[in-house]
Amino acid sequence: MKSKVVLAITIILVLIGILSTSSLASTTYQLTIVKKQADIQYLEEKRGYLENSITSIEETTGKVNMTMALHNKKTAQEEELTYENTEIFIMVPVSASQEKKNEYSTYVETLANKIFEANEKTKIGIIGLKGTIIDMSFDEEGNAIWGENHQGDVEGTANDGEIVVNLTNQVSVLTSGIKNMNPEETQYYINLQAAIRLAKNSYSENVNKILISLYDNVPSIAIGVENQVSYGGVTPYDTLEEAVVAKHEKIVSYTKSEILSLQEENIDFILLRPEDTSFDQDWYDKESGQLNYEFDGSPYVQELYGTLENPTYGKMYSLDNNSLETIVTEYIYQDVMEEVGTSLTSVIVKPYFSQKILENFDMSFEENANIDISTLEEGYITWNVGNLENGKSSEIHYTLTMKNIEKSELLNQEIPITDKVEVSYVNYTDTQKNATITTSPLIQLIEKEEIKEPNANQNTNTPATDDTVAPGTIPQAGATMTIWLGVSLVLFTAIIGYIKLRKMKDIQ
User: Fold this and answer.
1) What is the gyration radius of the CA atoms in the chain, in angstroms?
2) What is the architecture of the domain spanning 27-72+343-448?
3) What is the DSSP letter of 43?
4) What confidence category does residue 23 fall into, taking pLDDT thresholds of 50, 70 and 90?
5) DSSP symbol at 287
């Protein structure tokens, strides 16, 4: 008899536990964010980027608010250094032959016309590469003769550069300035360091800055370095070779430091490498004019400029591979346009939604957003952005709502919003360009157990919001334990009482 009573009480306890637990706990389905934003993707030529992101989510209703934005500007990390206007200085040797000056003029004219047509807020200036004067000729025997104006023993200074044409948007001013520079046809020892420093100090505030060098050789002097060398006697160099090597090491060191300083000033640099990386110089005796030393300075070419694959700074082109015309009017133009910025035209964006989104979500799109949803049955929509000016952005918003949030077959699966996004546009060269973005925001349906407080309506105190706590209801283990202890105590007391009562009856 006693065993039957104990068994009955045990069964009652189990049933009460199950009932109390089921009344306190419930299972819900929630939609959560796994990846809020797709990886930012550049368009071709880095002319812009697309953002595809989740704006907000309602976990228990399965509603996802989305934003898609197209930006015709650099990424957020670079935008602080992006300005509306652009200034370009082009460095050319002032002692070039008239034929060479005419050639420079022609190519600069072509480059400037294309740039001004694409972006009218750009200005171009010309800096003349010059330095100390070369007044030198040769007699019939090939010996050097120094004229009275020769400045071989004069150190280069920061004033050796010359602004041939101030910043302008007038093509005719540029071309005439180049053709007419250095009318006396004076020859100079080139001081590239001084020209670069002059350019650095000639830009306006808050503009995109670009410096282009059409000079293609190792300079002869630098600031504080003259062309003439001395050796023997009281000088630190015993031989002419030692003196020439030391001179070139200084020139390369000073000039290279000036090139690298452009990066600190956020000035983009585009330069030419010498056609021939060999660098030969003939050195003549100051007194007799006789040839004393033939110097091979080829290593200094690479030490100063770097290589095509790894330039000292910026971008570099070689006249070995392309003509000056191609370099200036095509490659340099494209490089400039990356920094100048232009309008994108005929822009169309097509997001292709994943199959799980198409099957399990309803979609709603904002009105008047130039969105064509007629192709949604084919898995995509068409967003007609149209023209997007430099520095501007355009965006659309839409909402995805889960048809059945308790669809268990989707549990714990990462669901991409889109399979891909296709972008097409016309660039500054009137060329059709296309880009495909394959990353996507991700969501996931999860199963979550909620524990409800008994007599929850009696609790009138609202706790302060704590943003550091994950959303969702946290099981109240303390409340469950309290109930179990109470029920167990009551039942235990009843069992003891019942047993004592039975014993008393047995005694009687």
Assistant:
1) 39
2) Sandwich (2.60)
3) P
4) very low
5) T
Mean of pLDDT values over 144-153: 94
Token pair in block for residue 358: 């198409």
> Strand (E) positions, 204-306?
208-213, 267-273, 280-284, 291-296
pLDDT of residue 279: 80
Q: How far apart (Å, rounded) are the C-alpha atoms in residues 369 and 381?
A: 12
CB 102 within 8 A of CB 137: no
**Alpha-carbon gap, residue 67 to 37, rounded angstroms:** 10
Q: Which CATH architecture has domain 83-231+249-276+297-340?
A: 3-Layer(aba) Sandwich (3.40)
- Is residue 86 exposed (0-12), middle (13-18) or buried (19+ Cβ within 10 Å)? buried
The model's pTM: 0.65
| Distance of alpha carbon 202 from alpha carbon 116, whole angstroms | 20
The whole-angstrom separation of Cα 236 and Cα 231 is 7
Q: Tens digits of per-residue pLDDT, 183-220?
A: 999 999 999 999 999 999 999 998 889 999 988 788 99
**Residues in contact with 440: Cβ distance below 8 Å, sequence separation at least 6, in sequence order:** 35, 38, 52, 354, 416, 417, 418, 419
The structural domains of the chain, with segments of one domain joined by +, span: 27-72+343-448, 83-231+249-276+297-340
Q: What is the pLDDT of residues 299-308, one digit of tens each?
A: 898 899 988 8
Q: Are 136 and 150 in contact (CB under 8 A)?
A: yes
Residue 228: other Cβ atoms inside 10 A = 17
**325 or 290, which is more confident:** 290
CA distances from 154 to 33, 55, 278, 434 (A): 70, 67, 26, 57
Chain mean position to CA 259: 22
Averaged pLDDT, 484-490: 50
